Amino acid sequence: MKKKVLADLDWLNYMADVVLKKRFVEEVELDIRKPETLDDLLELDLSQYWALMRGGVMEHYVKSASFFEKARNMIIASNPGVGYDDIDIEAATDAGIMVTNTPGVMAEDVAEHAIMLMIAVAKDLTRCDKELREGQWNWERHTGIRLWGKKLAQIGMGRIGTLIAEKCRTAFNMEILVYDPYAPDWQITNVGGKRTSFDDILKEGDVFSINVPLAPETQGMLGIEEFRQMKPNAIVVNTSRGKVIKENELVKALQENLIFGAGIDVFEEEPPKKDNPLLKCHNTVLTQHCASNTHEGVIAMVEEAVKNLLNVIDGKNPQPWDLINKEVLHKENLRFRNYIATLKKF
After folding, report:
1. Which residues pair with 29 in a beta bridge?
2. What is the distance between the alpha carbons of residues 332 and 337, in angstroms, rounded to a whole number?
3. CA atoms of 155 and 208, how far apart (whole Å)
4. CA spacing 20 to 30 A to 89: which of 126, 132, 171, 187?
5. pLDDT in tens, 307-328
6. Secondary element (H or E) of residue 235
7. Taking all residues of the chain, what is their mean pLDDT, rounded to a whole number?
8. CATH domain 3-103+295-345 topology
């Protein structure tokens, strides 16, 4: 009997088919649903689903503990992507459900996108392009910033942050300053970096790259007081989560020219409303939370998510670097344990 998997984007079916066609099609049935509200989701017979493969539509709904309570036969929630702040990890763990993501496969794509934003902001790219297309020729107004030899203020030193630091040092001969209380010394040393306090990195950095998970200690970590401590020619790039920056206060900093500009791929509310004042700031380059969205990255992301599903089908743990709630493996109500017991009967 096929394992029924609840999914929420049509492209997941296509990509899973491309990645692991025969096995996935034979053993797994993807049921694509696009609920508009939590009530719509909870009205489904969630007990029929063996797993969840969430691509984006349901991101705000699986934060509800009631979802995991009703999905009483669900063993794993396989998240094709890095961020998981929109999944109620505690509720999933309490219910005995494993939650996985794909943290490493798109790090290269996000790092490239972050550096693209740095360059685009430094060279006033979007405004220059827009004016030229409108028939204007105002080259003297577009005085950019040289990136060579500047100080990269790398906030967050995970896979993505490490790649950004390596690339900025190699390509632009940047001095690497790192703020990450959890990064080991060797990781910072390997990129030629210098561990720096939060207060000092705000004062010393030229180009800020934000690559931290959204957590209580990182939410709103950059606001007007932090922007006031930065150099007036500072560039801020955020490819992590929108709520890490206090968006209204970033707007104020940009309007008052407290910093040179910002490259933003993520927003407090997505998509941002048309009247969001950030959209009117000329000293920004804004993208649509698409830093990881490359052809190669999406294939690798879905492949990793599918591998985690197939591992569980075979009675194996998900890949250890992908399992978010590792503590669930020690819980008495781990649903995967019951599944393994069922496999052994046959």
Report:
1. 4
2. 9
3. 7
4. 187
5. 888 888 889 999 888 999 999 9
6. strand 235-238
7. 90
8. Rossmann fold (3.40.50)
Which residue intervals of the chain bear CATH 3.40.50.720?
3-103+295-345, 107-286
CB 188 within 8 A of CB 157: yes
Which of 241, 247, 303, 304 is the catalytic position? 241
Active site residue 268: no
- Mean pLDDT, rounded, for 298-311: 86
Q: Which of 113, 127, 159, 289 is catalytic?
A: 289
Please tell me which residue in 225, 269, 270, 296 is annotated as part of the active site: 270
- Collapsing DSSP to helix, strand or coil, 113 comes out as helix
State yes or no: is 241 an active-site residue.
yes
End-to-end C-alpha distance for the chain, whole angstroms: 14
Cis geometry, peptide bond prior to residue 271 (ω within 30 degrees of 0): yes
pLDDT-above-70 percentage for the chain: 92
289 is catalytic: yes
Q: In what order do the strands lie in the sheet with 207-210?
A: 193-195, 175-179, 151-155, 207-210, 235-238, 261-264, 284-286
